[in-house]
Please model this.
Amino acid sequence: QVQLVESGGGLVQAGASLRLSCAASGRTFSRYVMGWFRQAPGKEREFVAASARSGGNTYYADSVKGRFTISRDIAKNTVYLQMYSLKPEDTAVYYCAASSRLYSITTTSEALYDYWGQGTQVTVSA
Model:
């Protein structure tokens, strides 16, 4: 079991930056592929970014590539999502997730993620 708690969301203007954090507790953090997903009002939840167990490899949705960076601090059992140049279309609830089953971080299906945080709201005004 692993418990995930997100923080860092808020209301920002377009063009601003924001960093989300996801603190993990429970089993060894490095056992899991870590991912970020988001869900905008009226839309399905979508993949944003993933980090391999080692933290060395990362993968991004095309919509955020070049603007968002996922990273993990193994010592702190925390994964981050640094977001730059935010756009109104980035407005969503952002979820952190952990997968013990994934081996390829390019597999973006949320069904393969075992544990989820409660989500943190990010609102970007025009």
In short: The mean pLDDT is 94.
